[in-house]
């Protein structure tokens, strides 16, 4: 599996992980995406954590170098100012939604956080089946304050839909769960449902 990032901050609720900037510059590498699922496998225990990316940031790695406009295309910058890309840091912020221990999945917060410097990978279909396929994580996402929880819920469903090979049965179950979760807020429900319509996911 391709390593996406390395954990640099950790709690039982979320992680921050730094990406390898050189790998991100490779065109064939799958870049981290808002709402996508990642896993962190502990090297010191049998625990594996599942998380959903809720933010991605890129900025200079220190307070000395400031990002300024150069008036060039990205390709021109790569040719004429390649050093600026080595100064950038991309970090992913992900919300932990469950964990796997002793080959069993648990859809709630873990008893301990992932260790620092553990590697972050793209989650597999098996990871989701063990933790996320009952959609309990949607309630956790609905309470997120740092970004629009509606946007995060819709993005996570779209990403999970792709992992499930664009299964219409999966999308139906997701819609039914949302209907139960937001049964008292029809406007919010409809807004999320519009964001997971198959026709709106053609960009995938």
**How many H/I helices?**
8
The total tally of domains equals 2
Strand order of the largest sheet: 1-2-5-4-3-7
Regions with pLDDT < 50 over 5+ consecutive residues?
Answer: none
Helix and strand layout, with pairings?
Layout: E1 3-10, E2 14-19, H1 21-24, E3 37-41, E4 48-60, H2 74-80, H3 83-86, E5 88-101, E6 104-106, E7 119-122, H4 125-131, H5 137-142, H6 149-163, H7 168-181, H8 186-195
Antiparallel strand pairs: 1-2, 1-7, 2-5, 3-4, 3-7, 4-5, 5-6
What does this structure look like?
The protein is an alpha+beta fold and 204 residues long. The protein has two domains: 132 residues; 71 residues, no CATH class. It contains eight helices and seven strands. The protein has a six-stranded antiparallel barrel with strand order 1-2-5-4-3-7. Strand 5 and strand 6 form a beta hairpin. It is globular, with a radius of gyration of 18 Å. It starts with a strand and ends in a 9-residue tail after the last helix.
Task: Give a quick set of tags describing it.
204 residues, alpha+beta, 2 domains, six-stranded antiparallel barrel, 26% strand
């Amino acid at each position: 599996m391709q390593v996406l990032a390395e954990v640099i901050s950790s709690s039982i609720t979320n992680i921050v992980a730094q990406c390898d900037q050189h790998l991100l510059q490779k065109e064939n590498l799958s870049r981290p995406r808002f709402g996508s699922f990642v896993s962190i496998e502990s090297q010191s225990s049998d625990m594996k954590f599942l998380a959903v990316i809720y933010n991605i940031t890129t900025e200079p790695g220190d307070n000395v170098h400031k990002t300024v406009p150069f008036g060039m295309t990205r390709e021109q910058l790569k040719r004429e100012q390649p050093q600026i890309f080595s100064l950038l840091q991309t970090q992913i912020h992900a919300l932990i939604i469950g964990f796997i221990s002793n080959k069993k999945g648990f859809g709630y917060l873990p008893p301990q956080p992932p260790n620092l410097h553990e590697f972050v990978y793209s989650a597999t279909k098996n990871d989701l089946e063990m933790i996320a396929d009952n959609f309990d994580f949607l309630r956790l996402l609905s309470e997120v304050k740092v970004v629009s929880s509606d946007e995060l819920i819709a993005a996570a469903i779209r990403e999970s839909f792709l992992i499930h090979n664009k299964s219409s049965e999966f999308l139906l179950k997701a819609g039914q769960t949302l209907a139960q979760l937001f049964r008292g807020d029809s406007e919010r429900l409809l807004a999320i449902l519009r964001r997971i319509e198959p026709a709106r996911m053609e960009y995938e």
